[in-house]
Amino acid sequence: MTSLSTPYEIIIVGARVAGAGLALQTARAGLRTLVIDRDPPGRDTLSTHAMMRGGVMILNRWGLLSRIEELDTPAIRQTTFHYGEASFPVFIKERGGVDALYSPRRYVLDRILAEAAADAGAEVLHRTRFEDVLRDGRGRVCGIRMTGPDGVSHSVSGSLVVGADGIDSRVAAACGSGILHQGRNRSGVIFSYWKNIPLDGTHWFYGPQSAAGAIPTNGGCCVFTSFRPERLEGIKPSALPRLFQEVLSEVNPDFAAYLRHGSLDGGYIKFGGRSGFMRQISGPGWALVGDAACFKDPITAHGMTDALRDASELARAVVRGTPQAWQEWESGHERFARAFVDLSDRIAAYRMPLPELQAAHKDLSRLMNEECDYIERGEAGSFAEQPALAMAVND
Ligand SMILES: Cc1cc2nc3c(=O)[nH]c(=O)nc-3n(C[C@H](O)[C@H](O)[C@H](O)COP(=O)(O)OP(=O)(O)OC[C@H]3O[C@@H](n4cnc5c(N)ncnc54)[C@H](O)[C@@H]3O)c2cc1C
User: Fold this and answer.
1) How far is the CA of 63 from the centre of ligand 1 (A)?
2) pLDDT per residue over 368-379, tens digit each?
3) SS3 for 380?
4) Is the pTM of this model over 0.85?
5) Beta strand pairing status for 202-206 and 188-195?
6) Among 11, 43, 47, 221, which is best to mutate for testing ligand 1, by the most ligand atoms less than 8 A from CB?
7) Domains and CATH numbers, the chain
């Protein structure tokens, strides 16, 4: 095993929205930052693409929206909610420097974030797997063991290790982070990509027992259906198109008919569902961010926005390096993550009559407005203070 001599100020495992977003901020603030990911750069991942205003505001603050636009990500200026036969269009107003929403493919977004982190001075290593944490004599996490593409193990020391390694976080397991809060419901999802179906923005379709959506993204449109996960039980891959069409027809027959004019681009992708949860997010020498910290059922399409907001706030705490900054990050996380987990969980029961569902969406909208206020008030992305080692405060 080789031991690298460089001590990093922050080591991040996972180089997608949470991890690369955090690395971009800490590197810009001048902290020696290492971010690793087992995947090659630009690999797609299991996710649809709707990003809420808070997420777009953060990408704008980080100076990345123009790059997202350059790569032909459509600007979305209207979102329409359909409950049964009733439709409610919402026009995107200017707020926080943002007058449109964007839903980039993940191989576009995650790559832009990782490249921006590298440009800012972070060391970004793909095809590199986290194996375990290192601990000092007091049991405090002080680095990681990782395996590079050549199969060679390295021990790397760092003042703070952050798990941004997704829902099944190995960093969380290695640090002994437990589940503090658990949802009960979960959505089964089937999604696919379509060309030649012009849309006037994003469309969300809701029935009492299932939902669907059409999200304009790079090169076409992502269409998903979402329902109780039992419907996927025993379904072979060859039967996914039929179940997808069946759900779409029950939620909105007009859109199901419209989609038949389009051309399918690729196959059908399924997600069997996972209940939402919140993990303990920090301990001596370590922290978690993104899905590693908290997973929300995708029915509210808030995972990326939550990951970007939380990464932005964690970066601020790390750079400010005071106990107060650390506490502010933890309380902001607790406030929003818990509310989004619980609301997503309620909706993912697929039991609400449509008026009740509409009321739940109004709660969601209020929460997202509060989130935008919180992001607008925050200083993340513009670090006035001297970089300091926040890790000491978390001993
Ligand atoms: C079906 C579905 C649809 C969704 N739709 C939406 C949506 O429309 N809008 C939205 O906002 N959110 C959506 N989400 C949620 C969203 O995908 C996640 O919230 C988001 O990807 C979390 O980002 P992250 O950076 O925390 O983790 P991830 O994107 O999971 O990235 C974790 C990274 O860690 C790496 N990693 C893991 N283990 C290791 C290891 N041992 N060593 C090195 N690297 C490792 C992985 O390779 C991966 O690249 C959806 C999720 C699902 C399942």
Assistant:
1) 22
2) 999 999 998 874
3) coil
4) yes
5) unpaired
6) 47
7) 2-73+101-184+275-394 (3.50.50.60), 188-271 (3.30.9.40)
